[in-house]
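User: Teach me something about this protein's shape.
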Amino acid sequence: MSREHDGPSMALVVRKDLKLSAGKVAVQCSHAAVSCALVARKQEPRLMERWRTNGGRKICLVTDDLESLKQIMIDAKSAGLITHLVKDAGHTEVPSGTITVLGIGPAPKGSIDGITGKLKPY
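Assistant: First, the predicted structure itself:
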């Protein structure tokens, strides 16, 4: 396995039950990625730099519903990982305040895999 795939990673977990369009998923995942990166830049600057220099690996995963998304967030926070829940503004596909995506990381790939390993790719 190459060093790039061993480096830090970020997971973007999307709720399947909302049936969001591909464009909406892309935007919501972008919100999560940017927010997580900004937190990492302040709280974990060395990890952030390793993540960036290793290609900024991200993976988009899917979970069933809000309850499962919140449990993943609890597990990630308990592991000390950076998290960000995206709440939609409500201008297009879902009502204002709807939680759409959970961002996790950047963090060591193994730590993220320990939380998200059973999820399927989006």
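Now, about its shape. The beta strands are 8-15, 58-63, 83-87, 99-108, 120-121. The two ends are 23 Å apart (CA to CA). If you'd like, I can walk through any region in more detail.
User: That's plenty for now, thanks!
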